[in-house]
């Protein structure tokens, strides 16, 4: 093995651009979604109305000027820093912008989304894929019960055997309705449907969700005209089927107390720490301005803190973020301002938002000095003493 001479420094809370290896890379996009396990990041769909002609695939196109949505499913191996496009051989939907996506064990769960023009056709199918290195046969779940309407910009999660969807829009009306699918019986049911009463949150899309116990926390979001405050957080209690509203504290560690601005089209990830569940909110827009800031919300204390040293290189919205179980957050794609206009990107940023175990830091250092571990067979890596769970991140079994 030949070693890279570049020094390694573990720099938590610093946003860095990931340098890809290999020739395959997703094209710039917005309105896509990413999720991850501790081995791969998965990217689905997205939108870009303007692509250079040299990036349009002549054979088996997954994007066209007439339908500027990406019929694409990608995985990115975190250890090898290589992208792989999975050929979707079954059930690729037409609605590929502002879907919602989460992981449930080894399965991707994809829901909702809109085609182009936005709102013209929206999906209410639940699509799953058991992650693997080969072609993708997407499965549309055969469901019964009261299905939620076709929408986009909703948030989803899996909890206690149920698949939940919260909020969204059909392009005209916005809601904060909650439906859930029992994954054992495949039956949908209504949990909450708003009727305009006092004490209900205002309908929204492109919000984010955090869950602690049986409580769902709605973070931001908006409509076509408005963005909602992050200083008022609607909370739905699944035990009592009631809404409440919490007012988190502004960051008082600065010379003057500072609160995050209202926003939509941001991203958020959640990670459990010794200090309790933390939510990290990245970028977004209030409809006029885009943001490059990253905020941390301590759910237990209901306390916002601005990550002063953790700033995006550019303001960003309609991007997507995900986080590993060991506290490394990734941000991919989105729209950034550029020369009095806007431009979509295919940049992947990473930032350690927690201090991981020493073994994770050692693993990252090893990958820095030996980036070609994927070219060494699994047995050899085990024989030189690399723990099996790290070897499995390079050589999937």
Automatic annotation (TrEMBL):
Pfam families to which the protein is assigned, alphabetical: Kelch_KLHDC2_KLHL20_DRC7
Keyword Repeat: yes
Database matches in InterPro entries: Kelch-typ_b-propeller (IPR015915), KLHDC10 (IPR052125)
Record-level GO BP terms: positive regulation of stress-activated MAPK cascade
Keywords: Kelch repeat, Repeat
Name of the featured protein: Kelch domain-containing protein 10
Source organism: Papilio xuthus
Recorded name of the encoding gene: LOC106127017
């Amino acid at each position: 093995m030949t070693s890279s001479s570049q020094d390694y420094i573990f720099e938590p809370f610093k946003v860095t651009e990931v340098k890809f290896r290999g020739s395959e890379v997703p094209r710039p996009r917005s309105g896509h979604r990413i999720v991850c396990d501790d081995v791969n990041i998965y990217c689905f769909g997205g939108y870009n109305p303007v692509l250079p002609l040299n990036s349009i695939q002549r054979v088996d196109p997954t994007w066209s000027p007439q339908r500027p949505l990406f019929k694409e499913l990608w995985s990115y191996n975190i250890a090898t820093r290589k992208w792989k496009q999975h050929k979707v051989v079954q059930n690729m939907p037409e609605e590929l912008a502002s879907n919602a996506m989460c992981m449930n064990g080894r399965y991707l769960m994809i829901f909702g989304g809109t085609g182009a023009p936005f709102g013209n056709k929206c999906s209410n199918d639940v699509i799953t894929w058991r992650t693997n290195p080969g072609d993708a046969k997407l499965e549309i779940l055969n469901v019964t019960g009261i299905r939620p309407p076709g929408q986009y910009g909703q948030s989803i999660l899996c909890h206690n055997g149920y698949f939940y969807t919260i909020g969204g829009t059909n392009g005209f009306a916005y809601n904060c309705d909650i439906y859930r699918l029992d994954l054992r019986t495949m039956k949908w049911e209504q949990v909450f449907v708003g009727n305009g009463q006092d004490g209900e949150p205002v309908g929204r899309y492109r919000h984010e969700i955090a869950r602690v116990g049986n409580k769902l926390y709605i973070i931001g979001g908006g409509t076509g005209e408005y963005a909602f405050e992050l200083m008022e957080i609607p909370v739905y209690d699944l035990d009592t089927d009631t809404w409440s509203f919490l007012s988190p504290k502004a960051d008082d560690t600065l010379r003057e107390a500072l609160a995050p601005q209202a926003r939509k089209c941001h991203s958020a990830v959640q990670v459990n720490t010794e200090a309790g569940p933390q939510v990290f909110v990245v970028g977004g827009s209030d409809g006029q301005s885009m943001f490059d800031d990253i905020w941390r919300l301590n759910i237990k204390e209901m306390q916002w803190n601005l990550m002063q040293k953790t700033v995006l290189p550019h303001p960003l919205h309609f991007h997507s973020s995900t986080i590993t179980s060991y506290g490394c957050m990734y941000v991919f794609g989105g729209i950034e301002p550029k020369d009095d206009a806007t431009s979509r990107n295919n940049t992947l940023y990473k930032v350690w938002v927690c201090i991981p175990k020493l073994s994770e830091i050692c693993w990252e250092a090893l990958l820095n000095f030996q980036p070609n571990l994927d070219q060494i067979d699994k047995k050899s890596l085990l024989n030189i003493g690399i723990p099996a769970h790290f070897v499995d991140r390079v050589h999937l079994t």
